[in-house]
Design a protein that fits this description.
Blueprint: H1 4-13, E1 21-25, E2 38-39, E3 49-50, E4 54-57, E5 64-71, E6 85-89, E7 101-104, E8 108-111, E9 114-117, E10 127-128, E11 139-141, H2 149-157, E12 162-166, E13 171-176, E14 180-181, E15 192-193, H3 196-206, E16 212-217, H4 221-234, E17 237-241, H5 252-258, E18 262-266, E19 270-271, E20 277-281, E21 284-289, H6 293-311, E22 321-326, E23 330-331, E24 337-345, E25 348-351, E26 368-372, E27 378-379, E28 384-389
Parallel strand pairs: 5-6, 13-16, 13-17, 14-15, 17-21, 19-24, 22-25
Antiparallel strand pairs: 1-12, 2-11, 3-10, 4-6, 4-7, 5-9, 8-9, 18-20, 20-21, 22-28, 23-27, 24-25, 24-26, 26-28
Helix pairs in contact: 1-6, 3-6, 4-5
Bound molecules: adenosine monophosphate and magnesium ion (MG).
């Protein structure tokens, strides 16, 4: 069995950035990673722009200026301004050629068509020079940038409509288990509702992965092998839930090995999620996640998401980690590292009741996972804990 750190390192080293790129409209680009540098097609701002509502001044030495006109935002007029003259101007409007400064309207008084100024005016004050933010043909955003809402706004401000990004992987979610029925059907004795598929696909959605298809297999070797063979060839990433443990009807491991996948690791010294299996088959990345719902989701956050982000071109692909002060006492029962569902508020972490791998009740209200490495056996109120933020 390998450690959490080893498993994470192996997961990342075997997840390679895709070389597939696509051109997409910027309004659909949230969370994608730029595959090319983007050069600005324009100067921004495109012209000398007023940063204030006020008066453009033809010189800065006078105490009084004659008001000769007005420019509004969006005006294409280009009035001439001379020494001793002022032009009424508004935020975002083009500053008249020859204007030496713009003065805020709060700082002047108007007397008989004269703009009267009490204080010293600095040259170019309240004027945004053309190209102040970025000049035409400069790099606006570099390859590898993750597109955030501000990035979309910034690209739009430069008039850019389409960008080249790394393709996100296509993902198959395969649920195994004879006992599973879809929510909405009535439960017969011995059955439970299948919950991992919707949960994993929702978790994928929160990270912007939406190219997901669903499969369901019974605990039967031939069926398992047939479906896995198909999805491994059709998808970039395969997430299997259940059937990877040591029971007589757990066929996922045998089917994957018979399909000659390259096994990278099986079993991690962690709780929940010990029987995690990670493999590659050519370009396809395969995670067999333990079927217990909390194990599945923990493995998803710890290993699957960093792998998917790396494949999608993210420059850093670690979960957001931090620390918090424990509000709880907790004693480990075994030796493995543990991931505990917790609520963190005001830098205090409360470890929740109901940590069993079969339970989702605590996970459903948690906003963080507390990571207890192997060497920590007990937590006391006041201890500093490692925290992984949940989205
Ligand atoms: P397994 O990993 O197949 O041994 O399953 C471990 C436990 O998780 C069993 O109690 C299963 O019934 C349950 N389980 C497996 N897959 C799912 C699923 N997709 N949804 C809900 N529970 C599941
Ligand atoms: Mg099963």
């Amino acid at each position: 069995m390998i450690s959490v750190a080893q498993a994470l390192q192996l997961t990342l080293s075997h997840s390679k950035k895709t070389n597939k790129t696509i051109s997409i409209p910027i309004h659909k680009a949230l969370g994608f990673v730029l595959a090319k540098d983007i050069l600005s097609p324009i100067n921004m701002p495109p012209f000398r722009q007023s940063a204030m509502d006020g008066y453009a001044l033809g010189s800065i030495e006078e105490k009084s200026y004659t008001l000769t006109g007005e420019v509004q935002a969006g005006d294409d007029s280009d009035p001439v301004i001379s020494k001793g003259e002022a032009i009424r101007i508004f935020t975002g409007a083009p500053v008249p050629k020859g204007a030496k400064a713009v003065i805020m309207q709060e700082k002047v008084s108007i007397e008989n068509n004269q703009v009267v100024i009490e204080e010293t005016v600095l040259e170019n004050s309240n004027i945004r020079p053309a190209g102040e933010q970025i000049k035409k043909n400069e790099i606006a955003l570099s390859k590898g940038t993750i597109i955030a809402p501000a990035g979309i706004g910034y690209l739009a401000s430069l008039g850019i409509t389409e960008i080249e990004v790394y393709l996100k992987p296509s993902i198959a979610i395969v649920a195994t288990g004879n006992e599973l029925v879809a929510p909405g059907q009535s439960l017969q004795f011995g059955q439970i509702y299948e919950s991992n598929s919707v949960m994993l696909s929702a978790a994928l959605q929160t990270y912007g992965f939406t190219a997901v298809d669903f499969f369901k297999i019974e605990d039967q070797y031939e069926a398992t092998r047939t479906v896995l063979d198909k999805v491994i060839h059709q998808y970039d990433v395969v997430l299997i839930s259940g059937g990877i443990s040591v029971g007589d009807y757990d066929f996922v491991g045998k089917a994957l090995r018979d399909l000659k996948v390259e096994e990278i690791f099986y079993k991690v010294k962690q709780k929940p999620g010990k029987p995690l299996f990670f493999a590659k088959k050519e370009e396809t990345t395969i995670f067999a996640l333990p079927g217990n719902p909390a194990s599945s989701l923990s493995c998803f956050y710890i290993y699957v998401i960093p792998a998917l982000q790396k494949i999608s071109g993210h420059p850093h692909h670690d979960l957001k980690r931090g620390t918090a002060i424990s509000d709880s006492n907790y004693k480990k029962k075994g030796q493995r590292a543990e991931f505990l569902k917790a609520i963190v508020a005001d830098n205090k972490a409360t470890i929740l009741d109901g940590q069993a791998s079969s339970m989702l009740r605590s996970f459903a209200v948690a906003n963080a996972i507390v990571y207890l490495p192997e060497e920590i056996h007990e937590v006391k109120v006041g201890d500093t804990l490692q925290i992984i933020d949940l989205p």
